[in-house]
From TrEMBL:
<dbReference type="InterPro" id="IPR011701">
    <property type="entry name" value="MFS"/>
</dbReference>
<protein>
    <recommendedName>
        <fullName>Major facilitator superfamily (MFS) profile domain-containing protein</fullName>
    </recommendedName>
</protein>
<feature type="transmembrane region" description="Helical">
    <location>
        <begin position="373"/>
        <end position="395"/>
    </location>
</feature>
<dbReference type="InterPro" id="IPR020846">
    <property type="entry name" value="MFS_dom"/>
</dbReference>
<keyword id="KW-1133">Transmembrane helix</keyword>
<feature type="transmembrane region" description="Helical">
    <location>
        <begin position="416"/>
        <end position="435"/>
    </location>
</feature>
<feature type="domain" description="Major facilitator superfamily (MFS) profile">
    <location>
        <begin position="58"/>
        <end position="532"/>
    </location>
</feature>
<feature type="transmembrane region" description="Helical">
    <location>
        <begin position="129"/>
        <end position="146"/>
    </location>
</feature>
<dbReference type="Pfam" id="PF07690">
    <property type="entry name" value="MFS_1"/>
</dbReference>
<feature type="transmembrane region" description="Helical">
    <location>
        <begin position="189"/>
        <end position="206"/>
    </location>
</feature>
<keyword id="KW-0472">Membrane</keyword>
<feature type="transmembrane region" description="Helical">
    <location>
        <begin position="441"/>
        <end position="459"/>
    </location>
</feature>
<dbReference type="GO" id="GO:0022857">
    <property type="term" value="F:transmembrane transporter activity"/>
</dbReference>
<feature type="transmembrane region" description="Helical">
    <location>
        <begin position="336"/>
        <end position="353"/>
    </location>
</feature>
<dbReference type="InterPro" id="IPR036259">
    <property type="entry name" value="MFS_trans_sf"/>
</dbReference>
<feature type="transmembrane region" description="Helical">
    <location>
        <begin position="471"/>
        <end position="490"/>
    </location>
</feature>
<keyword id="KW-0812">Transmembrane</keyword>
Length: 557
């Protein structure tokens, strides 16, 4: 029998390997709580205030708020993409096209660096105030953009906008983890990824028309007004999902002398029931006994106005700097580093297209007007929506199917096979766009390549987020902060390097090189699919030591 440390942690558990499906369940021996085939991970408490116990309607309202969060800030931040030429041509701004692109790079950089400030803020004071502060800060500094009169002011507006809006990159995925079980996350993280992507595409699609009619400054101001409307709606709808849950029924899997064991731990405030049983023991009987012996306590749900309190999710003790240190600790885990790399390259190649869209399509032979440059983003919107079932729902389905084939055992890497399509079509989309544009192909081909890469980027984003959260769930927020920091530093480097790359090598050579780089980068999923379990085994000791240390100090649950 495996031993538990003082924090109730079995250090032989492999993080990211779970007992997800009851393949030998006997309904006659189980009560109604565990008759379902899928094991609920994490196990919900008996408290009505536990987000896992909220009604489906209430959960969907929170998902809607995440969509508002993506669209409110995303529209205000991204409406400038087709306006860069117009902004640079405006004599009142005194900003060059190079500095406009540099500002976008700084925005990406501080969306990443802001994780060191905004992620601990959300953990210490609650996710609800973090969302509202992020929206308010982004609104204010996006409103500054039409009034800039120098390169320095433009860069400052982009830095501060990125810093305040940093939660957009990691907080929604952690909110989804608060609300939904492991086997549901792909579906809703897919919705978040689609919202994040389409907000970035719809904004420039519409702002081009507004700019032609009213000027580029009013295009930005109207986007900021929309941001303000979303902020007001979120104030009355978004709830706090930080919840201090008692340890529940866990389904981690251990290895002892090459034999897999299902380790079950059930605890409440009065007693701990810890059992480690071998596969030929009736696991389901133990699970049924543990649940039937648990003292059920029901807690009244909060009223509507109580849910709107800004600091209802605040911690009693100040652990702000502990949260910062935990982010630094997560740099030691290879699956987290690879997830950041995957997320980075998934958006890296679309950003290459996005950076050059205005330059390529406004020049001969296309000669797109400002409004048509915006309308070109309709292609990415369509492709992102088409790819959602593949990027979202299907990775949950694949995970459950694989668990059924492996006697109910699920691995974090089970979601990764969807990346095969990205590996094949990603290079093709870059060649269609870049080589096609260099040879002056019909505009439809250029926009098709642009849209295809946008849809594929959603596949990469969803896969990287779910993989990171599945690998080290107890440290999910800190892990996601690392993922986003890596992603955004990569995009910052891209925005600084892409213009000289194209100037020196030309459109065709640049995109052929990018196609082969894309093939190699996305192809690393083959390596992680086969070695991910090894890395999780190798890091389980230091991971559980980290979790135990921070759990004893009350930093995490």
């Amino acid at each position: 029998m495996a031993e538990l440390n003082s924090s109730g942690i079995n250090c032989e558990d492999i993080p990211g390997t779970t007992h997800l499906v009851n393949t030998k369940i006997n309904p006659a021996e189980l009560n109604e709580t565990v008759k379902k085939e899928i094991v609920l991970i994490p196990h919900p408490s008996n408290n009505l205030n536990d987000p896992l116990n909220w009604s489906h309607r209430r959960k969907l309202i929170q998902v809607f708020c995440l969509i508002l969060f993506c669209y409110g800030g995303g529209v205000a931040s991204c409406c400038i993409y087709p306006l860069l030429v117009a902004i640079a041509a405006d004599p009142s701004t005194n900003v060059t096209i190079d500095n406009l692109n540099n500002g976008t790079g700084y925005n990406f950089l501080f969306l990443g660096l802001g994780q060191f400030l905004m992620t601990p803020f959300a953990q210490q004071f609650g996710k609800r105030p973090a969302y509202l502060l992020a929206m308010l800060g982004n609104l204010v500094f996006c409103l500054w953009m039409p009034y800039v009169h120098s390169n320095g002011q433009w860069i400052a507006s982009q830095i501060l906008s990125g810093l305040f809006y940093a939660p957009i990159e990691s907080l929604p995925s952690n909110t989804i983890t608060d609300l939904f079980f492991e086997h549901e996350r792909g579906t809703y993280i897919g919705i978040y990824s689609v919202s994040l992507g389409t907000s970035n595409f719809i904004a420039p699609m519409l702002s081009g028309f507004v700019a032609e009619a009213l000027g580029w400054k009013w295009a930005v101001k109207i986007a900021v007004i929309f941001d303000a409307v979303c902020l007001v709606a979120m104030f009355f709808l978004i709830e706090e999902t930080n919840y201090e849950r008692e340890p529940g029924l866990e389904g981690e899997v251990t290895e002892s002398e090459g034999i897999r064991l299902a380790s079950t731990t059930f605890s409440n405030k009065n007693e701990d029931i810890n059992c480690t049983v071998s596969p030929d023991t009736n696991f389901d009987k133990h699970m049924s006994t543990a649940i039937s012996n648990h003292e059920i306590e029901y807690h009244a749900g909060k009223g509507y106005w109580a849910r709107l309190l800004l600091l209802s999710g605040a911690r009693k003790k100040n652990h702000f700097f502990d949260y910062i240190l935990m982010i630094l600790h997560m740099f030691r885990f290879p699956p987290i580093l690879w997830s950041g790399f995957l997320y980075g390259v998934s958006l890296f190649f679309y950003s290459i297209i996005n950076t050059t869209e205005s330059i390529i399509l406004s020049a001969p032979p296309y000669n797109f007007s400002t409004s048509m440059l915006g309308l070109a983003y309709l292609g990415p919107v369509i492709f992102v929506l088409l790819f959602y079932p593949y990027a979202g729902w299907s990775i949950d389905w694949i995970k459950i199917r694989k668990a059924k084939k492996h006697k109910g055992i699920s691995q974090a890497e089970d979601r990764l096979p969807v990346l095969f399509l990205f590996m094949i079509l990603g290079p093709a989309s870059l060649i269609i766009y870049g080589v096609g544009a260099a040879h002056g192909i019909n505009w439809f081909g250029v926009i098709f390549g642009m849209g295809l890469m946008a849809g594929l980027s959603i596949v990469g984003a969803t896969s990287s987020i779910t993989y990171a959260l599945d690998c080290y769930p107890e440290a999910g927020m800190a892990g996601m902060a690392v993922v986003i920091l890596i992603r955004n530093v990569m995009n910052f480097a891209l925005d600084y390097g892409i213009t000289p790359f194209i100037d020196n090598c030309g459109i065709q050579t640049t995109y052929i090189a990018c196609a082969f780089i894309c093939l190699g980068c996305i192809g690393t999923y083959f390596l992680m699919e086969r070695t991910g379990l090894y890395w999780r085994k190798m890091t389980k000791g230091k991971y559980w030591h980290l979790v135990a240390k921070y759990r004893q100090r009350g930093v995490i649950q």
